[in-house]
Amino acid sequence: MKKSIIVAIFFVIGFAKTLPPIDFDIIKMQTSPDSPTLLLMGGIQGDEPGGFNATNIFLMHYKILSGNVWVVPVLNKHSMLLNHRGLYDDMNRKFAAISPKDPEYKLIERIKKLIISKEISAILHLHDGSGFYRPSYENTLMSPNRWGNCSIIDQKNLEGIKYGNLEEILTNTTGYINQNLIKPLHKYYIRNTHTAKGDKEMEKALTFFAIKNNKPAFANEASKSLPLEQRVYYHLLAIEGILKELGIVYERDFSLNPNAIYRLINDKTLRVKIDEKILLPLYGLRPILNYFPLPKDIKIIDIPLDSKAHILGLLPKDNQVWLKYGNKLMTKMNPDYLNFDDSLKQITIKIDGEEKNIPIPSIIEVKENFEILPIEGYRVNIIGYVIPNDKSLKPNETGIVIHHKDCISKFSIDKAGKIFRAEIYKGDDFSGMVLIKFL
User: Fold this and answer.
1) CA-to-CA separations, 110 to 92, 233, 434, in angstroms, rounded
2) In which element (H, E) is residue 80 found?
3) In angstroms, rounded to a whole number, what is the distance separating the alpha carbons of residues 283 and 303?
4) Where are the beta strands (DSSP E) in 149-248?
5) In this model, does residue 391 exceed pLDDT 70?
6) Rounded to 5 degrees, what angle do the CA atoms 113, 119, 120 make?
7) Nearest to 283 by CA among 231, 335, 333, 329
8) Which of 113, 180, 407, 411 is 20 to 30 Å from the Cα of 121, by its Cα?
């Protein structure tokens, strides 16, 4: 056991050096530049999924009616992709001093600039912590040495600054959380670290950097002892409490409870678009997708992704490309690196006898059969459909009526054996993909 752990540690450390820092996104939910603005951030430690899943749900399912919220869904994306606390040491200990030679130097400088920008009224930073914080010792799980389920400030007040009544704001926020506890065990307490009085570790953290620059800053910790949906539940309660204190008005499109959050995190309708050519469902994919087209001559981490979800990434690993949703592995691709051609925007397909123009990329639903009409200058390869032909020729499977029974299920992209790839080529260049989903 010890040997395998050591090997795993060396593997992670060795691999970390090959994955460069990835810049973070800022999504601005704004109604008026003159209104208060909350800077909401998650994922400064890549193995704390409660925070970055909370920011993700907030972006997808909340609407700001008055005021502004700037959201950084995940600060430490490169560590998130590897489910690692920090590939280049702890990012949340680099705000007091950082060497220009540090691989994350530019990221830290950009975060600092964001924090001190004149538009920002207050900062809320989301974390997952161990156990359950208690002001006095109760047991090993519940003690002053634990960080889970507490709201954190560096000092009681920030004098002369709007929203500088830090303790009062958190008193009201923790009160809101504690009115909605799942269990009494989960009770929230305020943790004042009194950082300026000599807490050497907290002096290095993001929130204290904000305080030193006269920006009200708060951190919320959800316990790692809780399942993900409950962590996200408590983070969302904390966000809502802070929004109320700042006078920012919002609405959400779901009832706030752990069961609803579980469904939203595991939303089977989520999709991701890859480089404007490929559209994939996030859930239900086969563990491995072979000969999967990806653009050549571009770094994997730079391949554009587009989705309602904001915590997606492509991870190059073991000669494969892993599609990650937060810390979750959705599928592994054995890539076929190709030149991507941008000349084709749509194709014509007969779906159950009805002719339709289909954009590239798309996922189309078919009850009985489909037929991709010939496209001058292009060919189509339907992965999993095999017809007797000259094996020396590249397939062009247009003008053929195809039923589900004609396709070999092991070549589907999904575990259920119902979704098949129709890949379109111009010569040897990849022009796009349409997915055929049999109902």
Assistant:
1) 14, 29, 39
2) helix 77-81
3) 20
4) 150-153, 189-192, 217-223
5) no
6) 70
7) 329
8) 180
Could you tell me which of 385, 355, 387 has the C-alpha nearest to residue 372? Answer: 355
Kindly state the tokens that stand for 389. Answer: 């032909």
Residue type, 129: G
- pLDDT band, very low/low/confident/very high, at 390 (cuts 50, 70, 90): low
CB of 233 closer than 8 Å to CB of 256: yes
Sheet with 217-223, strands from edge to edge, namely: 27-29, 68-72, 37-41, 122-129, 217-223, 150-153, 189-192
DSSP string for residues in 91-119: GGG-SS---TTSTTHHHHHHHHHHHHSTT
Of how many residues is the chain composed?
A: 439
Structure tokens belonging to residue 16:
């970390």
**Residue type, position 251, single letter:** E
Q: How far apart are CA 322 and CA 333, in angstroms?
A: 6
CA distance 288 to 316: 14
Q: What tens digit of pLDDT does each residue of 49-77 get? A: 999 999 999 999 999 999 999 999 999 99
pTM of the complete model: 0.94
